[in-house]
Write a structure and sequence with these properties.
The chain is an alpha/beta fold. Helix 4 links the parallel strand 10 and strand 11. Helix 1 packs across helix 6, helix 3 packs parallel to helix 4 and helix 5 crosses helix 7. The structure holds NADP nicotinamide-adenine-dinucleotide phosphate (NAP). The site of NADP nicotinamide-adenine-dinucleotide phosphate has 26 residues, from helix 1 and strand 10.
Length: 341
């Protein structure tokens, strides 16, 4: 078998059209690739190509008579150490993303659809509301997996607690009634370590409801999103100065959070918590300084060990992950450079 590929890709995703039998795959890569021939059961013709720098596509015809299950629509290709591909057909799943129109939700919906799943982006503006229960039972109908990335509209202590408790209760009850097999929620690294912070208390309450629900679950705790750094600067602003803690901070790109969530969602439930964080731990005052520099903001950043982070004094362990955390690929410096452009 003459396969040649630039790097050992872990996987690719694709779809088959039931109407025409045509299928295609999309590979995402960070490097140029040279080419590959993919052969295997269930596929008749295979031509790979249409290379661009970050993406390659593969088109062909499926042949159900050769072993492809007629209901299978999602295809993944695993590339072995020689760069040869082997395809695996699997059933697409119905996945409901609560908060599917938000920052993380919209990226997650896209990622899961690219993997061939049937994904419902659920939010009040698509007719699904976890507080009023509008559209909730209908959304759950036939769902195997639910990922909760909803966020409260108001972050005042009492309001945010009420949001996550009511939303969590309504959602978990609807999932239990529909027989959902995996509940995934996005929470925050270190939530239980900062009890002075009302938002963190609400996230701990949300996690406790999930743990008590009896539904198989995975909680993914992420560190702060890069997108949140501007808000931290704003919250620490007094006149023309920004006073923030110099405690270690390990923020993450929202793209990396969405990718980790997608992996967790389609994997078996762990009935526990996993963590994900950005690739670098940097003092918070320095992160804010880099953000301001990139956005040409001239305000002065003053490190202050007593400065409160939304009500809490931080140390180097407050917001940083444990040793087993999954680590995202995107560096703050690269992300912030792109925002500035
Ligand atoms: N910010 C951070 O650094 C950080 C770190 C770790 C974890 N997290 C967690 O990440 C999650 C997602 O954050 P995000 O920034 O992506 O949020 P976001 O952009 O504010 O999006 C929130 C989503 O929730 C939906 N929503 C609001 N009320 C709802 C309701 N009653 N029923 C159903 N959906 C509702 C919104 O829909 P509409 O647009 O229609 O209102 C929107 O789709 C949050 O749970 C947060 O705690 C955040």
């Amino acid at each position: 078998m003459n396969c040649k590929i630039g790097i050992p890709w872990p996987s690719a995703v694709g779809y088959v059209s039931e109407a025409t039998g045509e299928w295609y795959l999309t590979f995402i890569t960070r490097q140029w690739v040279t080419g590959c021939i993919v052969r295997g059961k269930g596929c008749r013709s295979k031509q790979l190509f249409l290379w661009t720098k970050n993406q390659a596509s593969l088109k062909g015809n499926s042949s159900p008579s050769q072993g492809l299950p007629s209901s299978a629509q999602a295809l993944s290709i695993h590339i072995d150490g020689n760069g040869c591909g082997r395809e695996k057909w699997r059933e697409p799943m119905k996945i409901v993303v609560i908060g599917g129109t938000g920052l993380i939700g919209s990226k997650l919906v896209k990622n899961l659809r690219e993997r061939g799943h049937d994904v419902l982006a659920a939010a009040p503006n698509t007719g699904v509301n976890t507080i009023t229960r509008e559209g909730l039972a209908e959304a759950m109908d036939g769902a195997q997996i639910v990922v909760d990335v909803a966020n409260a509209p108001v972050w005042e202590d009492k309001a945010v607690l009420e949001f996550f408790e009511t939303s969590g209760r309504n959602l978990l009850a609807a999932e239990a009634a529909a027989g959902v097999r995996h509940h995934v929620a996005l929470s925050i690294v270190g939530s239980e370590r900062l009890p002075d912070n009302g938002y963190f208390r609400a996230k701990v309450a949300q996690e406790n409801l999930i743990k008590a629900s009896g539904i198989p679950y995975t909680i993914l705790r992420a560190t702060q999103f890069f997108e949140f750094v501007g808000g931290i600067a704003q919250a620490g602003t007094v006149d023309d100065e920004i006073r923030v803690s110099p405690a270690l901070f390990q923020p993450i790109a929202s793209d990396d959070v969405a990718a980790a969530l997608a992996d967790v969602a389609v994997a078996p439930p762990v009935n526990g918590t996993v963590e994900v964080a950005g690739p670098e731990a940097i003092p918070l005052d320095e992160v804010v300084r880099r953000y301001l520099r990139a956005t040409q903001d001239t305000r002065k950043v003053v490190p202050d060990v007593h400065a409160r982070y939304f009500g809490s004094v931080l140390d180097d362990q407050s917001l940083t992950p444990g040793v087993n955390a999954r680590i995202g690929a995107i560096r703050f410096e690269d992300w912030v450079g792109q925002q500035a452009r």
